[in-house]
Amino acid sequence: xxxxxxxxxxxxxxxxxxxxxxxxAIATELETSKRSVYRDIxxxxxxRVPIRGEAGIGYVLESGFDMPPLMLTSDEIEAAVLGAQxxxxxxxxxxxxxxxxxIAKIAATVPERLRPVVLExxxxxxxxxxxxxxxxxxxxxRGAIHAARKVSLHYRDEREAETRRIVxxxxxxxxxxxxxxxxxxxxxxxxxxFRTDRVLTAEVLDDRYPARPAALRARWRAxxxxxxxxxxx
Length: 233
Description:
The chain is of the alpha+beta class. The chain is built from eight helices and seven strands; from the N terminus they run H-H-H-E-E-H-H-H-H-E-E-E-E-E-H. A five-stranded antiparallel β-sheet has the order 6-5-4-3-7. A two-stranded antiparallel ribbon has the order 1-2. The two termini are 32 Å apart. The mean pLDDT is 86.
C-alpha cells in the first residue's frame, strides 16, 4: 500500500470509530508495523489533521474534520452500490428513487477507471421476493422520526383486531418483504412494532415526544438484549 493511501485509510479508520484506536489495531488492519503507524500519525498531525491521543492509549479524530467527497475505493463503491440496489428493490418509492439516483451520481463522479464497478457491478441484490406494499406514507413517517413527533395510528393486527394508538416512532426496520415501524406505544406503555402494511391510517401530530429518537433506539436495543441476549446490531 502506498503511503498516501495508508494515510487516507488511517483517517478513515479513526473517523468511523467512536472510541480511541490503538496503534496496534491500526497496524493490524492496515497490515503494517506500529513504527510505520507512529510515523504516519505524526505526518498527519503535522499536516494539521486534528488527531488527538498518544502511543499506548489510542487516537481519535476530533469532530469538524472533513475530507473531499467521493474519495472511494473499489470495495467502498461496491458496498455502496450493493446497498443502493437493495434499497431500490425493497425501499418505499421515495427511498427507491433516491437509491437509483445515488447509483447514477456515484457513476457520474467517480474516476473513469472505477466507473465499471458501478455500471457493471460484480455483485447484485437478489430481487426474487415480492415486497408487501405499504399503506401509510413512509416519507411522512421518516419525517416524524427525524422531528420526534407523535403519530396517531389506526392499526389492524394479525388477528384482524383493530386498535387506535398514540406512538412515538423512532425507527423503521426494512425486512426482505415487509417493513416495521418500531415505536414506544403510549397505549401499551411499552415498545411495539407495527407492520406498515397493517396500518389503516396514520396521522403525524404536532406534539413532540419527550425523548430523542436516538435515546429511544438505545433503550430499544437494551430491551432486546435483556429479552433475547446479545445482538449484532
